[in-house]
Amino acid sequence: MGLFNMSYLRKNWFRLFRGQAGFSLLETVVAVVIIGFIGTGVIKAVDTNVRSGRILDEQVQATNLVTGYLEGIRQLPYSDNASPYNTVSAAVTEPTGYVVAMNIKYSPDGNDWSFDTPAADRKLQKISISVSRTGGKLVLTTCTFRTTRTK
């Protein structure tokens, strides 16, 4: 008798499965529920990844727009009115779906920003730049300050 007796293996192989007719309904339901939980987790992860990618893209676009505006303003000399600053918007190309708004306020000392027009005593400017989507969703807001330099 050899180490592997085939007839012995054939007889005993089928003894393992005797009394087993297949999976029960309970086992099948538990397996489907487990697969459902795993599938739901995967779908949630993919959805979160897509949303965060879209938000990141919006923020990068908005940051690039604001940087372009700030660089354009920085290259201009100080002006008591907003006219030169409005030329910056012509130099910066806005991507489709984005709107940039620039707001300039004036103050004599930095405590009161209620003035929309310059005057002799208002030599401090607060330039606010807001980037939003076409639908009105605000993406990014920043501001910078300018003043005349005295010698």
Outline the secondary-structure elements.
Blueprint: H1 6-16, H2 25-75, H3 83-86, H4 88-91, E1 98-107, E2 124-133, E3 138-147
Antiparallel strand pairs: 1-2, 2-3
Helix content: 40-55%
First and last CA, distance: 111 Å
Report the β-strand fraction as a percent range: 15-25%
Total beta strands: 3
Identify the strand order in the major beta sheet. Answer: 1-2-3
Which shape, going by the Cα principal axes?
rod-shaped
What is the helix/strand order? HHHHEEE
Low-confidence segments, given as residue ranges, are: none
Number of domains: 1
- CA-based gyration radius: 35 Å
SS-based class:
alpha+beta
Compute the average pLDDT: 84
Largest sheet: 3 strands, antiparallel
Count of DSSP H/I helices: 4
Structural summary, described in words:
By secondary structure, the protein is an alpha+beta fold. It has one domain. It is 46% helix and 20% strand. It has helices spanning 6-16, 25-75, 83-86, 88-91, and strands at residues 98-107, 124-133, 138-147. Strands 1-2-3 form a three-stranded antiparallel β-sheet. Strand 2 (124-133) and strand 3 form a beta hairpin. The longest helix is centred in the N-terminal third of the chain and has 51 residues, at 25-75. It is rod-shaped and about 110 Å long. The termini are far apart. The mean pLDDT is 84.
